């Protein structure tokens, strides 16, 4: 099998979490989607510091109940896509249990040809429960860009970011295109170290803003440029937050409203989608939606099958192929999707969340987990190795 011929290269994946009427030239006021109490706003502003440094017990409890921890909004499910049972994968229970124990897995599902070939749960999670996505949300947000292009609301991914977020003019984002933030090649300096309380990824939500001001652009416009746009890939959750701002301004809808219309219902989600908001009441584009395990798998099917007419033809062919090298042969980054050797691609989130798409086998793997730390090659490589084992068993 061609997929993932070099697992040594997978160490690079540890850096990642693990993925429109034309905007006016003056900065529009942020659309507040709900009134938050001062206590709720403080929880949002300190979310990075809270989540990244929760104990194991706190993570296991809170990852399946993020709506009880932070404010957010909900996209309602419609008619669910049926996922009939298929033949069980020829992988032993002992091997599956060993993987789930070693990786602290809450849910694992494998779908091939639209049929469920493996479904397991742990950590008290049930089929009707939601689990947080972390950066798997990035792949949802980029899909909404495609939907906005299809709707004629974003003119082109080659548009400058400042066309939609004009308050970034005069910053490191001058001359940066929407495509370059989709591929994380803006050239703007960023620190995504999840263990550093002073990193950008921890501090980005804590910036104090005036009423109606966007906290994402308020933080991102302070960052210096370190490379010419399009020349250097650096993983930046803050840029996916900017993508979320672009989508919300261009469509005039929240991410949950637009996702309900363009993903949740067309993909046939069975359960509602919860999406955390920032201190301005906007959904956080780079993180923190919550759905059922089977709906993560449905998202993988939706993307693998081309997006059910909700995005331009060929969108996922571009989104799921290497647009930016990450320094290792065969591995790369698309439009907020990771790319792997052999044509596989998928979404990743810290603490072990993942959707993997293997088009040559019509195969989707979804996993939700509570790793003992946010990221690391010592965890991501064994995960990918087990995914390879599952894919090979599907021959």
TrEMBL record:
The keyword Signal applies. Residues 94-374 form the Beta-lactamase-related domain. It comes from the Bacteria. The keyword Signal applies. It holds the Pfam family Beta-lactamase. One of its GO terms (molecular function) is hydrolase activity. InterPro entries: Beta-lactam-related (IPR001466), Beta-lactam/transpept-like (IPR012338), Diverse_Enzym_Activities (IPR050789). Keywords: Hydrolase, Signal. Residues 1-23 form the signal peptide. This is Serine hydrolase.
